[in-house]
Amino acid sequence: MRRKASLILLAFAVFFAALSPLLRWYAFPRLAKIPPSQYQEVVLEAKPATLVDYGTMQAKQVEKLTIVQTLKGNVEESEKIEATAGRDVVVWDTLSYVAGPDGKMISSIPERYIFDAHTQDPVHATGEMVDGDAVQRQGIEYKWPFLTEKRDYEYYDYRALKTAPIHYRGTQTFRGLEVYYFEQTIPWTKVRYPKKMPMPGIDSTKLEKQTGTSMWYTTKRMFWVDPVTGAPVNGEEIHQEEMRGGSLLAGRDKVTAFSGHVKMRADYVDSTVALVKSNRTLILLLTSYLPWGFLTLGLILLALSLWLEAKSRRPAGEPAPPAARAPVAT
């Protein structure tokens, strides 16, 4: 009877020991993915900021500038692309809406970002665009891969329409989470005018050609990323845009179009951290808690199996070792 029990325990020990690496290296890469229907909104502010008045073409300081970034999963489009791509695909329709202190629009830039639901690698398909123009992204945007590593990544800049390294700068603690801090600097780069701008009667897509006035942009981008989920829990930018040369500036070399230190609003930081904390538990179950738990359970079952096997092999006539007696009080 003991031998039969030891064999059963041994079978369970092998099962749980084998299940441990399967969960981590087989199940996790297939089960962990971004849901196609995700929706998120983030509000960022620059206090104070410098803006150009397009009526006078003079830069002025304002109390506050607001950037509302919305991200909406397009399930219908992701299913269409999956049918030909042969893998799980997420389509994000995003919008970066910039408003001045009076709430009126400064610019509005839409994007369609298509990527692999498991790895976050870009997927090139019809519809991938920035501000209505077709693009082919390289590198990540908005989100890092699950189990982010302590290394540099390639990050796509939708304003400059190019990919540049975003550098790992160390590990920090943010709101009780251990996060990885990343920085990216885009040097002064000539960029396109947004297609939606508060310039009545002027087609911004033809503005540079008609006036010779170009738009230039630079930014220092900072992210604090939860390494388990790959989700940024905080983000900031030191952002500058200039209009340079041409007849629009009436002989001046340049004028600041926008300048400010952009930060996530505190309430959105709180909600983002709460969301990440709940999601990271699911990832840790597949990558840490369950694999290590099953491995430990397998070792315990193996030890019990060997102990029962040793007891079952004791000769029938051999007496059992005497039990230790408790000392008798006198």
Helix-strand sequence: HEEEHEEEEEEEHEEEH
Q: Work out the number of β strands.
A: 13
The percent of residues in helical segments reads 25-40%
Terminus-to-terminus distance: 43 Å
What does the overall shape look like? Answer: elongated
Structure report:
The chain has 330 residues and is an alpha+beta fold. Helices cover 28% and strands 38% of the residues. The protein is built from four helices and 13 strands. The chain has helices spanning 2-31, 75-85, 207-211, 266-312; strands at 39-53, 58-62, 65-73, 89-99, 105-116, 129-130, 133-134, 153-157, 162-174, 177-191, 214-225, 232-244, 254-264. Strands 1, 2, 3, 4, 5, 6, 7, 8, 9, 10, 11, 12 and 13 form a 13-stranded antiparallel beta sheet that branches. Strand 1 and strand 2 (58-62) form a beta hairpin. Helix 1 packs antiparallel against helix 4 (266-312). The longest helix is centred in the C-terminal third of the chain and has 47 residues, at 266-312. It starts with a helix and ends in an 18-residue tail after the last helix. The model has no long low-confidence stretch (mean pLDDT 91).
